[in-house]
Design brief:
Order of helices and strands: HHHEHEHEEHEHHEE
Oligomer: single chain
Largest sheet: 7 strands, mixed
CATH architecture: 3-Layer(aba) Sandwich
CATH topology: Rossmann fold
Helix content: 25-40%
Strand content: 15-25%
Structural class: alpha/beta
Shape: globular
Number of helices: 8
Distance between the termini: 33 Å
CATH class: Alpha Beta
Radius of gyration: 17 Å
CATH superfamily: Vaccinia Virus protein VP39
């Protein structure tokens, strides 16, 4: 099994069996602890930043939300007028997203449980992937961007955890735990890592680093990939 597939399966098991209730609460309006409040605030800021990379009017556009979680990004895209395909590896999170979808958006969002690309069909005008690529190596991220470039005409906006001393220390500590006790471990990296992997795989396109969001225990970098751009 490839490293991507093995990591994807660990992510599915973690969110479906261990973290569903945590993420349901974190992504709601329910009160949370101080630490989780910083994560919630950071994710809200990151969502706004990613949406700012796309047109404000998405009427007539088909947009992929790759790793949609409980659906907040998909809902915002649909409000802008997009026809959204929202896919997540966790059926449990997809179930929560369906329940939370505003009734006036019925028919505008297609909720799909499965691999972020294999479970979808057809082409897209844009794609977003908020904190859903953070568990993968740079070569795996590059390969996924290459696959997406064949079907995404415009921007692929995504996030990666930056290679900071604090995150590198957490990454090393996480690898010390027995495999059975591990949650999926973020893989800190930077734009150069992914750009190098794209070149090594002969995947054409333009990769841009947009902005880093840091809010307490939340730290992530927004990036944009446009495939086939010279």
């Amino acid at each position: 099994m490839s490293s991507y597939a093995a990591t994807r399966d660990r992510v599915e098991e973690y969110f479906d069996r261990s973290a569903t209730r945590v993420w349901e609460r974190l992504t709601s309006d329910a009160p949370v602890s101080g630490i989780r409040a910083t994560v919630r605030a950071g994710r809200d800021r990151m969502r706004d930043l990613m949406l700012a990379q796309l047109p404000s009017d998405l009427r007539g556009a088909r947009v992929l939300d790759a790793g949609c979680g409980t659906g907040a990004m998909a809902v915002e895209l649909a409000i802008r007028g997009a026809d959204v395909v929202a896919v997540d590896i966790s059926p449990a999170l997809i179930g929560i997203a369906r329940e939370r979808m505003p009734t006036d958006l019925a028919g505008r969002i297609d909720w799909v449980a499965g691999d972020m690309l294999d479970a979808t069909s057809g082409g897209f005008d844009h794609a977003v992937a908020m904190d859903s690529l953070i568990y993968y190596s740079a070569p795996d991220v590059a390969a996924l961007l290459g696959r997406a470039a064949e079907r995404v005409n415009g921007k692929f906006v995504f996030t990666l955890p930056p290679r900071t001393p604090a995150l590198m220390a957490m990454w090393r500590m996480g690898k010390m735990f027995p495999r059975s006790d591990r949650s999926p471990i973020m893989v800190p990296q930077n734009a150069l890592d992914v750009a190098h992997s794209l070149r090594a795989a002969n995947i054409p396109g333009a990769l841009s680093e947009i902005e880093r969001v840091k809010s307490g225990f939340y730290i992530s970098t927004a990036m944009v990939f446009e495939g086939g751009v010279a």
